[in-house]
Amino acid sequence: MGFPTVYPTGTTIYDTSASWSGYTVFQAKDVGATIIDMNGNVVRQIRRLHGFPNRLLPDGSMIGSTGRRNNRYGYQDEKAVVQIDWSGKVNWRFDQYEYIEDPGEEPQWMARQHHDYQREGNPVGYYVPGMDPKVAGGNTLILCHKNLHNPKITDKRLLDDTIIEVDWEGNIIWEWVCSDHFTSLGFDETMKNTLYRNPNLHAEVGDGVADWIHLNSMSVLGPNNWFDEGDERFHPDNIIWSSRQTNIIAVVEKTSGNIVWQVGPDYHKSVAMRKMGWIIGPHHAHMIPRGLPGAGNILVFDNGGWAGYGTPNPGSINGFNNAQRDCSRVLEINPVTCEVVWKYTPVEAGFVNLADNYKFYSGYISSAQRLPNGNTLITEGADGRIFEITPAYELVWEYMSPFFALGANTNYLYRAYRYPYEWIPQLSKPMEQPVARIDPKSFRVPGGQEKEPENVMVFEAGDTFSSETQLCIVTDDEIE
């Protein structure tokens, strides 16, 4: 097993002087929407409110999804997006995107929501000074699924991605369908050929559905300096999304639906993109909102792992998932020059040996949030780890989820957000207790070794030693 079988959970590091303290919101595996304080204490939990993702509103209300569609007929389809106030009352619900009649199931309306949504008033869904999401009223952007056929892509049935905008009453007032823009996405002929043959097919779902592009984040750009300076590509209403399967991050013009900015799927197209390196399986790509450090840059969790379509290689004999990397990166990118202006990789995490790159790695899910003090909150989702670092990469807060799936050895979590204490006016500000970093070299589980080892030999280069089988002389050059 490559991961420790025993390790501490809850808050393991907390520097009260360097962190941007508040409540952290995420979905606890197999439990529901969860809010913790900085010391890891659960202050609120709403069971069966799914986190795709969970979000907090300024009055203590929470948004999430509820009712997963039967996996035999749908893939990652949530039946409804709901808003629940502090008393537990559902005061907003949307499920009117598609009327579903699955075999053996009760016919019903569904949202078919997945991975993301945004409430009017806030561009990204996390805390931005002066940009509070609307609690009552306002429109909501929702990332959804739709099944269709498009012979330009494949002869198989697509599980396509759509973005819709709904008003408070649930009326759909805008829709964008991803497959309509296939020819604008920059696939070369080899990529198209691979995609046609294997469009990420889930054969077990119904008669089979092809999750060909798999969008996993979507948000509006919001006010930004690029648009103020005359760059129409970055109009505040335009929408940025990331595609896990194709390694693409793109901006959609809201008025026309056209793609007006893009990186991927080919990262050899420019010097800047070659220097950036391949973004593989990205999650949570968004423009850092005005009012936060780095405003106007694009922040993305570059997962690594496996994704893409293209030329076969030793890791992909048929060209499917042909881009692979066993470590993750968080990148902050200037969208005009495509220059990486800040990053967090295994090197910044302190792993100088290339063989240790996997120690910062989540091949799926995950996210990054810019905090008001310039710190970055990172969700390393596959390991159930949330942590906060300073711009200089100092680790100032860390939390390991203690919520494991029933019958499974996983505590993964999709995406976490940090919010100010004031956003839950129903609670008093919690006490903040520093948690000092533990030195793993000296930490012992009770009952383990607790005294200094005996029979210690000090060995110097050039010394000789003997055993029953050999006599060795070791020099400095032979010590690795």
Structural summary, described in words:
This protein is mostly beta strands and 480 residues long. It has 3 helices and 33 strands. Strands 1-30-29-28-27 form a 5-stranded antiparallel beta sheet, with no helix packed on it. A 4-stranded antiparallel beta sheet has the order 4-3-2-31, with no helix packed on it. The protein has a 4-stranded antiparallel beta sheet with strand order 5-6-7-8, with no helix packed on it. The longest helix is centred in the middle third of the chain and has 9 residues, at 189-197. It is globular and about 70 Å long. The two termini are 25 Å apart.
Mean pLDDT: 93
Total domains: 1
Would you tell me which CATH topology applies? Neuraminidase
- Principal-axes geometry comes out as globular
Give a short account of the largest sheet. Answer: 5 strands, antiparallel
What is the overall number of helices?
A: 3
Tell me, what is the CATH class?
A: Mainly Beta
**Radius of gyration, whole Å:** 24 Å
Helix content: under 10%
Could you tell me how far the N terminus lies from the C terminus, measured between alpha carbons in angstroms? Answer: 25 Å
Q: Strand portion, in percent? A: 35-45%
CATH architecture grouping: 6 Propeller
Q: Quick one: how many beta strands?
A: 33
Strand arrangement across the biggest beta sheet: 1-30-29-28-27
Task: Please state the structural category.
Answer: mainly beta
What is the oligomer described by this structure? single chain
Report the CATH superfamily. Answer: TolB, C-terminal domain
- Runs in which pLDDT lies below 50 for 5 or more consecutive residues are 465-480
